[in-house]
Automatic annotation (TrEMBL):
InterPro entries in the record: Alkaline_phosphatase_core_sf, Sulfatase_CS, Sulfatase_N
Statement: the UniProt record of this protein carries the keyword Isomerase: no
Pfam families noted in UniProt: Sulfatase
CDD domains on file: G6S_like (cd16031)
Record keywords: Glycoprotein, Hydrolase, Signal
Name this polypeptide is given: Sulfatase
Length: 514
């Protein structure tokens, strides 16, 4: 732990309550690269590892979940059937770059400092593949890196590197790909190109070493462009619109209601007249090429006799809202934003049809995969090894999760958000906006449609969760709001003919005696 200095918390604990003083760490609370990347062995056989990461894939957008009748994801269904489904998997920040940095470091965004999509990881911070490489693994990164705005230079920890600038494009845009530091043209539809590179590397790798392939797709990030062979496949499907899409929900914060008429709202989505149902169908059509690629990788490993000894981990980098609470996109602390799909298969390590009910987070990926590689995770990582959960062991596990998102000038619709999510209760706290916080009973109200923050009888719950939130931030060095330099385009328009401003929250109104 670093030395601490006193600071003042810039938010009160409730209407009319005074500000409170908390300790603030003077320095970052993580260790950086020292040159020695050797970790202690855990005595277990190192396994091959394949990580397949997608962008903006909802936790329930999988065929076996039955959320929409027309969805087809046969390879994901197979992973769930033959392996494990993490039913309560979450990210600690629902935004591409912060989430990816957390996956690679096992740290919160306020620790690794990648708090938006425009800033790179600080020099010296260690990525878990560096430890694998030092332990004798052959490693490859193929796909979307997206930390540092436009950067696609090779990063530490990878023997093979194939990436592209920023978000990339489904079809060639002239920027091409960075292949081990050399730029080449993008030849075709990006998902297929990345799948082909993954197959080529698997074919050519050193068979004498264990390997780790990290395949990070652009898909299914908007705009959604399916491969031509998949376009229109779900056009005749019937989309079930979310129950919370209607305007005027009681207890909904003013900023959420106002966001309906914005880049990230259903009334002016992406500054266009967009039908959410049609958009979702294209989203799932765009995913089909990813699913096919998973099947190709599994078929290759099976042919080589390596499939059952290889951990295949599939996950999304954050969720995505399709009309819930009148919103699209992610960033918020609502379930559809912060929950992700997570599936794993490795018969050598755990059985088939496993369901993990505990809350697992992107924080846990780095320590878990280090354990799969036969290594002890460093104690500075915030995550936990999920292997005991997959084996059905009764082990101490988290009963709450910290969530954070920091306001972006280029997408000002969403304020800074912090949240504590327990199995039953979720408390959402906003910074820098004159509005109300949120409290939900997830057991009685899984759709988060009844805000209990001012409901009689819930005062003690809100107070307890507020204290837990700031305790967690204090203990992990998160009591400082970052102020990054302005970067990226701004999406700040409203539809002049659309809905007007929401009324000020009634709970904060008082009548002055006259």
């Amino acid at each position: 732990m670093t030395d601490k200095k006193q600071g003042v918390l810039l938010a009160a604990t409730g209407p009319g309550e005074p500000h409170a003083a908390f300790t603030i760490p003077a320095e970052p609370m993580f260790e950086t690269r020292t040159g020695d990347l050797a970790l202690p062995r855990n005595g277990k056989k190192p396994r091959n590892i394949v990580v397949i990461l997608t962008d903006d894939h909802r936790y329930d957008a999988m065929g076996f979940m039955g959320t929409q009748d027309f969805i087809e994801t046969p390879q994901l269904d197979r992973l769930a059937r033959e392996g494990a489904h993490f039913r309560n998997a979450f990210v600690t920040t629902a935004l591409c770059s912060p989430s990816r940095a957390t996956i690679f470091t096992g740290l919160y965004a306020h620790q690794h400092k990648v708090v938006d999509n425009n800033h790179a990881i600080a020099p010296g911070l260690v990525f878990f593949p560096e430890y694998l490489q030092a332990a004798g693994y052959e490693t490859a990164f193929i796909g979307k890196w997206h930390m540092g705005l436009e950067g696609d230079d090779p990063q530490p920890g990878f023997n093979r590197w194939i990436s592209f600038k920023g978000q990339g494009d489904y079809w060639p845009n002239g920027d091409g790909l960075n292949v081990d530091g050399e730029r080449i043209e993008q030849d075709g539809y990006l998902t297929d190109v990345l799948n082909d590179f993954a197959m080529d590397w698997l074919e050519s790798r050193d068979r004498e070493k264990p390997f780790m392939l990290f395949l990070a797709h652009k898909a299914v990030h908007a705009e959604f462009y399916p491969a031509p062979r998949h376009e229109g496949k779900f056009s005749d499907g019937t989309f079930r619109y979310p129950e919370t899409m209607a305007a005027g929900a009681p207890g909904r914060p003013m900023w959420v209601e106002n966001q309906r008429n914005s880049w990230h709202g259903v009334d002016f989505a992406y500054h266009a007249n967009l039908d959410i149902g049609d958009y979702y169908k294209r989203y799932m059509e765009t995913f089909l090429a990813v699913d096919e690629g998973i099947g190709r990788i599994m078929a290759h490993l099976e042919e080589r006799g390596e499939l059952d000894d290889t951990l295949i981990l599939y996950m999304g980098d954050n969720g995505f809202m399709f009309g819930e609470h009148g919103l699209i996109d992610k960033r918020t602390a609502y379930e559809e934003s912060m929950r992700i799909p997570m599936l794993a298969r490795c018969p050598a390590l755990f059985g088939a049809g496993v369901q993990v009910d505990q809350v697992v987070a992107n924080l846990d990926v780095a320590p878990w995969l280090l354990g799969v590689a036969g290594l002890e995770a460093p104690d500075w990582m915030e995550g936990q090894d999920v292997a005991p959960l997959l084996r059905g062991e009764d082990v101490p596990w988290r009963d709450w999760l910290l969530y954070e998102y920091y306001w972006e000038r280029n997408f000002p619709q969403t304020p800074t958000v912090h949240a504590i999510r327990e199995d039953r209760w979720k408390y959402i706290h906003f910074h820098g906006v004159w509005d109300i916080d949120e409290l939900y009973d997830l057991q009685e109200d899984p759709l988060e449609s009844n805000n209990l923050i001012f409901s009689p009888g819930h005062e003690a719950i809100a107070e307890r969760l507020n204290a837990k939130l700031f305790d967690a931030l204090e203990e992990t060095g998160g009591l400082q709001i970052p102020l990054p330099r302005d970067a990226g385009e701004r999406n700040v328009l409203r539809d002049a003919g659309g809905p007007g401003l929401a009324p000020f929250p009634e709970e904060l109104l008082r009548m002055l005696a006259r």
